[in-house]
Design goal:
By secondary structure, this protein is α+β, with helices and mostly antiparallel strands. It has five helices and 15 strands. It has a four-stranded antiparallel sheet with strand order 2-1-3-4, with helices on one face. Strands 14-13-15 form a three-stranded antiparallel sheet, with no helix packed on it. The chain has a two-stranded antiparallel ribbon with strand order 5-6. β9 and β10 form a beta hairpin. The radius of gyration is 27 Å and the shape is elongated. The C terminus is likely disordered.
Length: about 270
């Protein structure tokens, strides 16, 4: 290894934070303080513990100054330290002012998104209508939704467009964090938190519900009770027999429904009064 190479690689993987491995820190132009990265800044300055008027985040493109972690020299944003020559990040993006020594993430900059993403540029494509990058596996099958990821995750409320976490596109085309989806499944929730449509095959569950409904005989007072329901899966409205366990859609046989008209309690009261 040449002397210049050893200098540039000095401190590799020894510095950074929980978000990135890098050999520099940033000076946040908004508050003129030093942080390991913009996420560290945002966690500190946009905390719920602070007064709402004092909370703020730092835009990545506004960062102009960095501080070398090895020699503490503060300087303009560049990949190599102007004083000691160390490479402050094996991956460097001058457009995002972004450094990262962990190149296994296969970072790339998307000009249309205006930010750096991970996973390898060859594995993603940018959809102009959706305004974000998707896996090439979805190129010929995804449904376009304008600004599909320019909103908060419906579970944790983190902004999805520039999140560092994996994102899942549901069949209904709504997007949430993959880890949030798995957390839902651990609580036996299998419908979109935005539109309530089932996001996986629930036919076996509906079959078991058929058996449970059939095994539970409703009291005589509710035998002729009819209610209107709206199916969350097919959007069909229908009038069905009331049952305390579940209400089944007559069109698609889904039990993912909600009652819209007709109250069992009011029906019981009317029957009693009569």
């Amino acid at each position: 290894m040449s002397n210049s190479s050893s200098i540039m690689d000095k401190g590799y993987w020894e510095f950074g934070c929980t978000h990135y491995r890098r050999r520099c820190k940033i000076r946040a132009p908004c508050c003129d303080e030093i942080f390991d990265c913009r996420h560290c800044h945002n966690e500190s300055k946009n905390s719920i513990e602070l007064h709402p008027l004092n909370r703020h985040e730092v835009p990545r493109h506004d960062i102009k100054r960095v501080k070398c972690s090895l020699c503490d020299t503060e300087q303009d944003v560049k990949q190599h330290c102007t004083n000691c020559g160390v490479c402050m990040g094996k991956y460097f993006c001058s457009k995002c002012n972004f450094f990262d020594d962990d190149v296994s993430k296969r970072q790339y900059h998307c000009d249309e998104c205006g930010i750096c993403r991970v996973g390898g540029e060859e594995n993603f494509f940018h959809c102009d209508k959706c305004g974000c990058c998707y896996s090439t596996l979805l190129k010929n099958s995804h449904k376009c939704v304008e600004k599909a990821m320019h909103h908060n995750c419906a579970i944790c409320f983190e902004f999805l467009f520039d999140t560092t976490k994996d994102i899942c596109v549901l069949p209904c085309v709504h997007t949430i964090h993959l880890e949030c989806l798995k957390e839902m499944e651990r609580h036996l929730r299998y419908s979109c938190p935005v539109c309530s449509k089932s996001y996986c095959d629930m036919s076996k569950v509906w079959e078991r519900l058929d058996q449970e409904v059939a095994s539970v005989v409703m009291p005589q007072i509710f035998q002729n009770k009819r209610v209107w329901i709206l199916c969350n899966d097919c959007d069909e409205k229908s009038e069905v027999n009331f049952h305390i366990l579940a209400l089944k859609c007559l069109k698609c046989n889904s039990y993912n429904t909600r009652q819209t008209r007709g109250s069992a309690a009011s029906f019981a009261l009317e029957t009693t009064n009569n």
